[in-house]
Amino acid sequence: MVVLPSTSLKMSDHSGSNQFSTSCTDQDYLVLRAREALGKGDSWEAKTWMLTARAIFPGNFSIQFEAYTKEKEGGHVKESAKCLQSLFDKFPEEVKLIKEIEVIMEVLRNVTADQEVMESDKKFYVDMFEEISEIGQKKMIICAADSAQNSLEHCKLMLILMKKFKSEIVTHGEKLIETINSVEKHELGLSAPPLNHFRKILVVDILPTVLADENLKMNSKLLLKNLYKSQEFVLAYVNKKSSVNFEVKHPWRLLYTILHGVGKSLNWSSLPSLPPNTTTIPVEDYLSSLSGLGRAALSVPSDSSTSQQLFHCLACVVLHTVSQFTTLSQEQGTVMVEAWVTHDTQAMDREKSKRRKTQDDPSSSHPVLSHMTSSTLDTSTNSTTSPLLSTFQQAVSAWSLVTSSSTLETQFQGLVVQLSQSIGRLDMISTFQIDYKLHAGQLREALQDMRGLCSDNKASKAWPGLKLATVQYCLGDQRSAAQSLVECVSNLACLGEGKDVTGAGG
Description:
Layout: E1 8-12, E2 19-23, H1 26-39, H2 43-56, H3 61-73, H4 77-90, H5 95-109, H6 120-131, H7 134-146, H8 151-164, H9 169-188, H10 197-211, H11 220-240, H12 251-265, H13 283-297, H14 305-332, E3 336-338, H15 345-355, E4 369-373, H16 387-403, H17 406-423, H18 427-439, H19 443-454, H20 462-474, H21 478-491, E5 500-504
Parallel strand pairs: 3-5
Antiparallel strand pairs: 1-2, 4-5
């Protein structure tokens, strides 16, 4: 038994003097004796003093926290976890404890799959947290989230909870999506630019995590609203990623992942599976599925679930394939032009029928297309060997489905207008529409669009001029073609020589 004096105690002075006299409480005395023993290198004596203190004063936070600190400093994972859980059970509102939990949460947010390369102190926190009971872990994370200094930190902590405990998605998932939406609106306003840190955590982390729960059923309006937010973010990122200070890996794959999750939650049918452990996107599977869905949509109302699925899936595929085709064209310095041949009216009608691509007749998807370089004029490359041409064929198939229904086309053009308001000009859409009309043999329609593009002060002058010249020549207007070609050549100086040209011949 330890006899404790209640007033004045003599203790060794570790600051330089041999002895010092001070007034301290019983609790302070025990803690000081433990520190004194630890200072002498006697960890067992120090531990004995702390065990005594904890047993005599179980309701004293300072003693209990001191015991936890000593175990942590000694690197004792299991003992530290027991002390921390006991502290949290007894003193959940103590500021000092909450700050310690916040430190642990910060480490958990940044934890990597390879814990071997983590700093030792961070690895200790991770290992210690794993020793706490599952219920204790959940309570600590929720406590830290509720005590977060701002809403964004709250969302990040709730994300940790749902990534670690999938069963919590049903309880907190929908609320988390609503919260991050509200935070973005409150902090940045209704016209917030899509490339912001609130949207990034929504699209990159929250939506894929929450929508991974296939049993989760959410409000359809909320789901579709966030699908649009995802389309907006991904499209803005691929167009402007050089101007942002963060990286998003495989953004289009991310969009399809979210689309798949939305479809599962809304009970959409015939959604192609995304292959695991790969970045591949099964675009052809989506096109085949959408082709059948398009036929089914003909016999149901435009506001039916089938029509809704068709539009939203098709919108993602069109934005993806057109964007990829545009990127490849820019990277390779290519432009799609009509071959230098003259068409008569009957031949144009036959060519239009020949070129029109449908999913029902894959053989009709191969018009006279070639990918050649100005140096070799090699026409051997076709759509099966050229990523540029295969991507173009996919984009054509998707666009054919959009234009197969006036309702779908109106909906999609409305989406493009809406996206343009937040992202900026989507020249890729208007440019692709011209390429599509060339591919389909709609030369007069393409001519009208080309004139509008060439008169646009913000558009490039060289390549549109070349495209315009070929269309005019094909329609028999050699004089205008020659004039357009001269103007094109005068604008080519800044583009250099030896660029690739993609030809759509007739």
